[in-house]
């Protein structure tokens, strides 16, 4: 059973999570023709060595089931954003590979996406709150990774590829 404070905190998180995902998906589709799911895949590949990942590692990294990823990669491949190729490490496995067109789409979409994230997420916070918020989110993520069902992701992203970060 959750305490009253835990319930209120959980519902606050759910409201933010669901609404933020909706707004990000809407902005990306309107401005760039990408879905939030497309953006997640492109972003993970752009941040990977050689712009490629084994599909199982990509699924773990973006917290998707492999079957969902497989279907989505086929749709993205049809749009020229990604390719699938035999794995560079294990020829029995398949890699998802970011194409030049996919990288260009990501780079074109990222400034608008980052502006929306800043406006909807960060502008409502006092900068002094960020270290505590980050620490809380990192602690929750670690708890989910430790006790969840997916394997631990190999890497942890710190920057949006192709975007000059400031201040």
From TrEMBL:
Name all HTH marR-type domain ranges: 6-142
PROSITE patterns recorded: HTH_MARR_2
GO annotations under biological process?
response to stress
Any Pfam family hit: MarR_2
Highest taxon of the source?
Bacteria
Q: What GO molecular function annotations does the UniProt record carry, in alphabetical order?
A: DNA-binding transcription factor activity
InterPro entries found in the cross-reference section: HTH_MarR-typ, MarR/SlyA-like, WH-like_DNA-bd_sf, WH_DNA-bd_sf
PANTHER family linked to this entry? MARR FAMILY REGULATORY PROTEIN, TRANSCRIPTIONAL REGULATOR, MARR FAMILY
**Identification of the protein by name:** Transcriptional regulator, MarR family
- Source organism of the structure: Geodermatophilus nigrescens
Its organism's taxonomic lineage begins at: Bacteria, Bacillati, Actinomycetota, Actinomycetes, Geodermatophilales
